[in-house]
Every structure is written in structure tokens, then in C-alpha cells.
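Q: How would the C-alpha cells look for this protein?
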Amino acid sequence: MERSIKATLHETRERNERLVLATIYDQGPVSRADVARLTGLTRTTVSDVVEGLIASGLAREIGRGPSTGGKAPIWLEVPDRARLLVGVDLGDRVFTAATVNLRGEILQRVEVPSEDADGDEALGLAMQLIERVIAAADGPVLGIGIGAPGLVDSTDGTVVEAVKRNWRELPLGHLATERFSVPVHVANDSQAAALAEHVFTETRGANLIVIKVGQGIGAGVVLNGQLFQGDRFGAGEIGHTVMDPSGAVCRCGRRGCLETTASARAVITRLATLRGAPVSMEQAIADFERGDPQVCSIVLEAGTRLGEAVAGLIGALHVRRIVLAGTMAAFGEPWLQAVDAAASSRSLAALACDTTFELGRIDDIVVLGASALLMTRELGLSLRPLHSMPRPGLSVKEVAAEATVQAGVIPPLTVAERGGFAG
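A: Here is the predicted structure in C-alpha cell form.
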């Protein structure tokens, strides 16, 4: 019984620490009284937790705010470099690793060619890259986040299957933890990309779809502020949906997958076939920007094929914000408009009119997403929609209850509220 009580007290303490830290991270600068009101915790509990966070370097006092007649509040914030995140992208053409601060700013970045590596060779290359970045880190490293291709069991970091790398049941998370002695979290690269857009941008909402279009194609889905991975972690694997059964052979072995018609690989392959010589992505982008009719036709057709597939996501999920990221995003607005037009013409008009498409990052979105995965899991920092507000008339307990239901969502303070509490 005593052990059970101690375990419960430890869990309560840990939950309180995560809730307070998440509130300071999202709301900072914020006072202790603000934190108590927003979390529903007592001021004594908040003060105790805050002192521990300050001692560990995860929070700091940054001076006093304006007084409204009483004692001026002492502002708290989470220092950007309180911990460093090591984010890794095991991409098709290059492996990239970087140190990232808690606000998603890349501090140091290293990449190595990886196109021809598979099996143990690819694994060794990834480990060497991570080792280089950790060795050069100039601050406390929280851990490692990895975005890997294929089907990934993110509960234990196992790559269930990655065709390109010839990885099957690879315990990547365990191997990296054993080698580097820090926490390691692994997710599918496209799912990680969704976290990058959700956590580290100023337009964070409750729902989001990010479609990463590079050598392969995958979607990451955020629903109600949480990454949606499906029953067995395969949510968003749209790249290997067969669109044309008589089409080209895909690297997965089937014919006519979306990747064979809409990916960067498909665009380059078609151009190389027509020209009778290899074509780089950089050359294709330059030719597209010059208005080369051959390149424009192929790129816009690829956008149309992608839009046809995305129409299904619009109908199934009705997520209003869809971000297109990865290499193909370098083709810009004309490509984006081709995707939008095709998706809109093939989905219910009422839903299509309610959906927005926008361009996302071309580079490093998986590195940032893997960093966000690590940060949110290890520190419990919330995935709160930035525009969420408490409903009028809610008591402190009701605000806290709503926050719990929304998976840790904490409503933001208004400017007036920030000045209305003593520290």
C-alpha cells in the first residue's frame, strides 16, 4: 500500500510539473498566479513546482510586469536553450541531423549523402551522423528525435518496414538509446513533418494535414491537437495508394502508386526519359521558373494527380488547413494551385470551399518535426491550439477540466489578464 501511495504521489508530481511547464512555455511571460489560474492548481503547488523548474534550468524569472495596485507580478518563461533537441531526418537522398532549441530554431546542421545506403550500412551512417551532432552540442541535450521512412511503431521506435532502406523490424529507438544513453523517440517522417508545422508555427490550430512530397509522398495528420497515427501507426501512408493499376511499377512492387505520378522522383524520371539524359531537381526547378513548357506540363500534371488523392482526405477528415511541404513545394504557387484545383473539383463543394492549401517548408521539416516529437514527449509541452480561448463564465475548475479533455490544451491569457495578477 505504501509503495502504491508513493507511486501515485510521484505520478501526481510529474503531471503537475508537465502541466506547469507547458503553461509557462505556451503563455510566457506569465506569472505564478497566472499559472495557478490556468491549470487549476493551488498557488502553493505552482510555487513549489516552479522552484524545481528554475533549479533545473527549465524556467527562469525575467523581471516584474506592471502592477494594477497590488504587488507587481514576476514573469516566468522557458529559456529557448534550456535543453537542446537533436532532430534527425533519415531521408531518401541525404541523412540530416541538427541541434534545435525549444522554439524550433536550428542551431547546427549536418548532412551526409544516403541515396545508395541500405540495411546495416544505412544504420551505421545514421549513428555516425547523430554522434557528430551530439559531440558538437554546446548545451544540455534532452534526447534524440528521429523521422524515419516507412511504417514506424512510435511506442518503442521500431521501424516495422522501410522498403527503400531494406529495414524490417529494426529496433532503431532501442539501438540509439543504447548507444547514446539519452531518450530517443522515432516516428514516420511525414507524421513528424506534421508536428513541425503544428508545434513550431504561429498558426497552430486544433486540426492539420501536412503532406510531404519529395522522393516519396506521405501525410501527417493532427486531430484535436494530437498526432493521429492510426491503429497501427500507418495513418497518412497515401504514397502507395494505387491510382492507376496499369501505371509504372512502384518501388513497393505495385503499379501506379501515387508516388509514381506525383512525387519529385516521378517528375525527374519523366523529364530524364523525355530528354534522354539525367535531370537534377535543381535543374527542373530552374527550368520551371523559366517557363519551360515541357517541365511546366509535367510538374502541373503531378500536382493534379496529387490533388486527386487529397480529395479523399478532404472528404474523410474535413480538416480545413492542408500544408504541402517537401521538395515539390519548391515549384511554388502554380503547383499548389494545381493541387488545390484538382482536390476541389473532386470533393464535396461545401467542404472544398472550407479547405485552404498552403506551401510549407522545403527543407528540414522532418528534422524540426522529430525535435517536436522529442520535446512534447519528454517535457510534456502542450500541443495547444494557439487561438483557443476559454468559454465565458467558466470557473477555474471548469477551465482546468476543459484543458484536460483537450489533451492538455491551456487557454491563453488576454493582455488585460496578464497585468491583473500578482506574482
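The domain at 84-195+366-378 is CATH 3.30.420.40 (Nucleotidyltransferase; domain 5).

The mean pLDDT is 88.

Upvote if useful.
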